[in-house]
Design goal:
Blueprint: H1 3-35, E1 42-47, E2 51-54, E3 57-58, E4 61-64, H2 70-87, E5 92-95, H3 98-101, E6 106-109, H4 111-115, H5 121-124, E7 132-137, E8 140-145, H6 150-161, E9 165-168, E10 171-173, E11 179-189
Parallel strand pairs: 2-11, 4-5, 4-6, 6-8
Antiparallel strand pairs: 1-11, 2-3, 7-8, 7-11, 9-10
Helix pairs in contact: 2-6
Length: 206
């Protein structure tokens, strides 16, 4: 079992453990947003063809920090694999540097998204430990998470924004290959638990 498979299995377990409180909190949040007249924070269109686009700009690469964390590497691997299935594209992975800092048509991950100007450090503070932010603008996608595995969780949610669903380690729904156009995307999410950790304590009778 690969590390990413174990993480998806773990995520499904956590989702089951917190689904009741999550649904209630989500409903209250949606009600507040509706009352304040807020519009959708993402506009994503699927159509015939292939490719991932921000407006009219095709995304053709993933940019990682020069020294990526394990969670950032795993996020890039998952995005590469699933975007090939969903969008029919094979994204190349590049390190962040002078040549890629001002790149257009890239998906910046982790610290590279911050260094490229996608978010400020203050904005990332809202993500805390394992939350994440994602934003599409200027022909790029910026995705970064908090400490630990935040960027990985953000990558999986990004795929869900594009139409995939991960219900359990052995049950996922991936839409057929098509063209995906992101017209608007600006999200921040964090788990109800500060850390995605479950600790089981065994007790011995007698």
């Amino acid at each position: 079992m690969t590390s990413s498979t174990r993480l998806r299995q773990f995520a499904a377990t956590l989702a089951l453990a917190s689904c009741m409180s999550g649904v209630a909190l989500g409903q209250r949040s949606e009600a507040r947003d509706a009352a304040k007249g807020r519009g959708p924070d993402q506009q994503i269109e699927r159509s015939a063809g292939t490719g991932l686009f921000v407006g009219g700009q095709a995304i053709n690469s993933i940019v990682l920090p020069a020294e990526p964390l394990k969670g950032e590497k795993t996020a890039a691997e998952e995005l590469t694999a699933y975007l090939e299935k969903m969008c029919g594209i094979k994204l190349k992975t590049e390190p962040f540097g002078k040549e890629t800092a001002a790149r257009t048509g890239a998906l910046f991950l982790g610290r590279a998204a911050i260094d490229a100007g996608g978010f400020t450090d203050e904005e990332m503070g809202a993500a805390e430990y394992e939350g994440y932010r994602m934003r599409a603008r200027n022909g790029n996608v910026y995705l970064a998470g908090g400490k630990y595995w935040g960027t990985y969780w953000g990558a999986m949610n990004f795929l869900e924004q594009l139409g995939a669903h991960f219900y359990a380690v052995d049950h996922e729904v991936v839409p057929p290959t098509g063209k995906v156009t992101i017209h608007a995307l600006d999200l921040v999410r964090k788990p109800y638990l500060d850390l995605r950790v479950l600790k089981f304590v065994g007790m011995k009778a007698g």
